[in-house]
Amino acid sequence: MKITISEVGQHIGEEVTIGVWLNNKRSSGKIAFLQLRDGTGFIQGVVVKSEVDEEVFKTAKSLTQETSLYVTGTVTEDERSPFGYELQVKNVEVIHEATDYPITPKEHGTEFLMDHRHLWLRSRRQHAVMKIRNEIIRSTYEFFNQNGFTKIDPPILTGSAPEGTTELFHTKYFEEDAYLSQSGQLYMEAAAMAFGKVFSFGPTFRAEKSKTRRHLIEFWMIEPEMAFYQHEDSLKVQEEYVAYVVQSVLANCKLDLQRLGRDTSKLEKIKAPFPRITYDDAIKLLHEKGFDDIQWGEDFGAPHETAIAESFDMPVFITNYPTAIKPFYMQPHPERPEVVLCADLIAPEGYGEIIGGSERIHDYDLLVKRLKDFHLSEDAYKWYLELRKYGSVPHSGFGLGLERTVAWISGVEHVRETIPFPRLLNRIYP
């Protein structure tokens, strides 16, 4: 019977066959321990010389790292294993022998590992991070589907920039100029006027020449947009969504979190509602912490966000940023036009902003004025303005950066480990 490693718990005491790769091995004169993986998980295969044919034991001892094979054996429970099971191997059939596999159990430099990312993905650590990423995606769809959202896919090629043109990748679209999308938000606003509550999930691109551990050139965003939702309504959705995702990872990725050495007690605290602090109070807090350089009206950098987050053991909303440093489409505060109805959600433990959101301007004349203030073309945004001409309503939305969220939940330091093939300032290989 052919099964996968993830299914072995259903076949205790039975003889099964699994297609695997050899992750590692150790052996003595009488027994060989094979560390096996098949993509669904890892298991130890035990080959006892006295219990198998001589040729089988000889083959098992000669296996090289990343050789592909079929192993046949009996599934047994093993309390010493984090996985809980072991395979008592009776037969080994080599499919393809790997020779001189470049990533050995010794230490390798980061650049070497990144050059071999196509192989590094096979390691236990990278496997765990990708499984957590997958669970975040799965639970994202589950959350929004359960809460009445419709998934809408915005275009990747756009004719204008939702947040200005300084960080866009330009290309020619036949005879016209086009850009790789830095956000699907404007299109999601159009979709919200048709479907009420929508979300997108797709790649976005920022031509930002940054080398920090928080930045990627290509990354994935979850962008919900909600008609008839004001800023406060959106904040509730955000905290409920993030808490839901964290609890789903805790429930379904225990082995992966354990493999990464993640302190799950910090994640277990993540439940709505989240604390909130205004931009004004954040400035005061930073001054108290010795950040005298930051003045009202300036945006926060990574050190500022980390310092603010240190005052909380939960994600924290920073609300009501100055109008001048936020995109043109954000709704001004009704009592303080110098700030907007927006919030950034800052993850704890120094992982920085994972969500940016706001109530959107729904008044036609105000949006026209804001386009002029930002020196943006009314013709390019004609379709976006028309959303305010034909049945405009208050609406809000946000964008969650998947890779930063994966980094925070899994506890890895750099976002380059949170995406299968990272695109960095000086890296587009492999």
TrEMBL record:
Aminoacyl-transfer RNA synthetases class-II family profile domain segment(s): 130-430
Enzyme Commission designation: 6.1.1.22
GO CC field: cytoplasm
Subcellular localization(s) per the UniProt record: Cytoplasm
GO molecular function, one term: transferase activity
HAMAP family: Asn_tRNA_synth
Name used for this protein in its record: Asparagine--tRNA ligase
Organism from which the protein derives: Heyndrickxia ginsengihumi
